[in-house]
Amino acid sequence: MYKLHSLILLVFVLCLSVHSYAQQSITLNETPDGLYNEMISNEHVRNDKGEGFCWHAKYSMNQYLKYYQLTKNTEWLDAAVKYYDFLIAKMDTDPEGYKGWIGPYMYDEKYWTDSHVGDAILMNGMLDFSLLVMENKELKGKYNDRAKAYIELAKRDLIEKYDHRGTWKEDGPIGAYIAFDKYMEPGITKQWKFGSEVTRSGLTHPFNKQNDMGLVCMQLYRLTHLKFYRDRAEKIFLRMKRQMQLSGDHYEWNYWEPFGSWDIDFSNNTPKHWVGINPNPGYQSREVEQMVEAYHNGIVFDETDIRRLINTQLEVMWNKDKVNPAFTNSNVAHEPGQRQEEKKATGTLWTSLLDFDQTTRTLYEAGLKNSQSNSLEYLSYYNIIANKPVSFTRKYVKETVKVPFVNFNDCKEIKMAAVVPGVFTKGDRVALVNYSWNPGELEIALYSANGKDKILEIFKGMKPTDNVIEWNGTDPQKNITLKGDYRVRWTLGKEFREFPVVIK
């Protein structure tokens, strides 16, 4: 028995030694000052303004915290604070006294403005720092003031600012941000000079930009415990989840979809922006990352949703090669008659799914085989991610989470179906919008809230792949008084999609 106890003790000591050696063996090819100087020396970070500046400034912004995670050396946090303060010093003040990264408008540089996504992605990085500090007693003593300053910046000069401008819109249980419709003359930030005549003014932002605002709201909820921020994040992500297409056992979703009447060109019966899966693989990869972060915060998404995203990646996009993995875009299922080897590798590995799936980890490791062992990517994976088993445990909530119910119908043909708006008074101008992969005979009908009873047929006939049909929320035959909760159902062939509506 004594020998057995000694053997167990020896194994325990050896394990501690190996763990200690692994930590001590980390050799970085970067220093805090070196990273800071490299980032502020970037030509675009040094000279650009506006949203363009924000995208360049965001690049590598999370490296400070990753290096701290690996080393526990607070010099990385000192460098982070130095960089954040550099960014804040680049902010300008708008005509109403709010700060933002003001500069050339992304779609027409003759005008100046700040943007939801530009402000959000930089404040998101700062709030990551605030969360690290406020949830660690040792760090809080040194960095408390800076962490609180970043919180107040995000509360006032992001959420409050864009609410003050009237860019937040709600439609029942969902909500979205629209582009502001006032602009400045280049270099003159004291007054708004231009308005809705500027291209894309007032349009609803695409999902990736909505979600970046949602990420900040989730961070502010964790930091302040104010329900306002959680509710805002839930409305943002619930809208996205409701608009995702269930096809078999996987999800597809569009880059942008209309949300309000401002998004519809009623004279031509068409949305004012294109609807489709973004061909740039970085967009969907980022949107999956945003959804995963919402999942870990207990917002909207559940384990079934994550599994469906994994299926999209591994069953639809992956070429099934573990040695040389390649990925198509997620709409490849709608390219009939094309063999897997002929499909173009226009997708990418969704690394945010590494928490949940071993195959995803295996594919990621294949991509690391030629990486340097002291690269941040390599060190972060093998010292932070791979050390934990795959699991669907949420990172930031311990209690059981109940997410809002979304009724999905397995529908491969209809890639978008929405009622704009979804809550309306009879007599209002309502747009019934649908996009399909192929033309065909389409029926649009109003059903009971539980989907069992057909109330009335709104439209039936041959339609192209995209269309907008106007409806005023009434029974054309004048036989039924419509009021309460319903579903609008689009049926194409044997498949259908639905959208919940409320008629006041």
Could you walk me through the main structural features you see in this protein, from its secondary elements to its overall organization?
This protein has 504 residues and is an alpha+beta fold. The chain folds into 3 domains: 33-242; 295-408, no CATH class; 414-503, Immunoglobulin-like (Sandwich), CATH 2.60.40.10. Helices cover 40% and strands 18% of the residues. It contains 14 helices and 18 strands. It has a 5-stranded mixed beta sheet, with no helix packed on it. A hairpin with a 5-residue loop joins strand 14 and strand 15 (454-463). Helix 4 runs parallel beside helix 7 (116-134), helix 7 (116-134) packs antiparallel against helix 8 and helix 8 crosses helix 9 (207-224). The protein is globular and about 75 Å long. The N and C termini lie far apart (78 Å). Residues 1-24 and 336-342 have low confidence and may be disordered.
Summarize the structure.
It contains 14 helices and 18 strands.
